[in-house]
Prior knowledge:
Elements: H1 6-41
Keywords: Membrane, Transmembrane, Transmembrane helix
Transmembrane segments: 6-26
InterPro entries: DUF7859 (IPR057181)
Amino acid sequence: MLPVQPLFVLLLVGLLGLFFFGFLLVRRTVTGLNEGYNDGRS
């Protein structure tokens, strides 16, 4: 088994968290824009 550095694990978890947060933010923005566009059309 390879030795795992805690700093590497911390960095990986931080990157995954940042990616997940960015994904949620983009998804919320896109759905909000889509709803606003649909409300404006009707």
